[in-house]
Amino acid sequence: MRFEFRALPARVLFGAGRRRETPELARQLGCTRPLIISTPEQKDLADAIASLFSEARAHVFSEAAMHTPWNVTSRALAVAQGTGADSLIAVGGGSAIGLAKALALRTGLPQIALPTTYAGSEVTPIIGETQDGEKRTRRTLDVLPEAVIYDVDLTLTLPARLSAMSGLNAMAHAVEALYAVDANPVTSIMAEQGIAALAAALPEILANPASRDARSRAQYGAWLCGTCLGSVGMALHHKVCHVLGGTFDLPHADTHAIMLAHVVAYQAGAAPHAMRRIARALGADDAWTGLHALGTRLHVPRSLAEIGMPHEGIGRAAELVLRETYANPRTPDHDSIRAMLERAWRGAAPQPDAL
Ligand code: NAD
Predict the structure, then answer these.
(1) Is residue 325 part of a domain?
(2) What is the secondary structure of 129-183 as a DSSP string?
(3) N or C: which end of the chain has fewer CB within 10 A?
(4) The model scores a pTM over 0.90
(5) Among 19, 37, 39, 91, which is best to mutate for testing ligand 1, by the most ligand atoms less than 8 A from CB?
């Protein structure tokens, strides 16, 4: 055996009601005057966290948007400076957390994240920002939140459909961690557990969105999967979703949910050990049929066409996927990527190509 494992420095508080510990956690970081960040839809939640702080010392900025656009970041920076914020508290999904990271990068302020989706950004040193229509991603510990509070109560309002797609988005991190070029035994254990926790919890959430038990297990799985994303390199699936989302403005979680079984089928022959572990976590005969069946059970969208991708974009997407080199178990080529995208566009069943 030969591997490298790097642990990420972060403090994680997990449990129902623990959002109420936010001011104490901030105090332990030496902070009493946070800027609380959310998307417009989660402003009430941000106000509720602000009200936990005494003497109106917390301010709220509720304009976070998907893909961290620079114009929003620059407005938020002015508010952070104008209010004398000494810390950043993100309440929401990847959009709110992304904005807090963008501010932390430029101000050095410590962050606390209270995630309300399963996207996983709160435990990664990764930031994606959009400027002049181009999304650029980089890794730096400067954007990793110092502390994360997973309070299941904050996820109860996440609609069942969004929960399913966000959960599959999380699962994609763990799937790719299992065949990552820098995979290691610790991350792989987290990946398998994360997939298993989400695969069991998501159908229960669909059947009973108010189930705190299922929501809590999904959140646990999302933490494990997010940690995988933060720890090892991702491969073809994340590249494809990045290209599709960035080029055709497709919704992030939907794109992940549609593509995952297709990409896993594409990789199947080149990563047999990872495929066995994914199948085992899903309780399925093999990885891609298990993921496809889970998507069907969760009623996620099946085709790129239905989420707005133009058919004539397939060739361009294949080119962009191949433009940069990155580690992947199977060496991608234009024809096979195009064929996979064509199947995903039509909503056809995934197909493991001959290598
Ligand atoms: P999001 O934060 O935009 O949330 C999706 C939608 O769900 C929004 O409309 C939001 O208002 C709503 N929502 C969130 N929580 C809710 C709740 N509890 N109840 C009701 N509605 C709720 O999307 P996301 O999928 O969480 O994150 C996607 C973004 O995060 C993308 O920009 C993606 O690139 C980024 N991301 C970054 C990383 C990273 O490591 N840097 C990881 C994953 C995702």
Answers:
(1) yes
(2) EEETTEEEEEE-GGGS-SEEEE-GGGGTTS-HHHHHHHHHHHHHHHHHHHT-TT-
(3) N
(4) yes
(5) 39
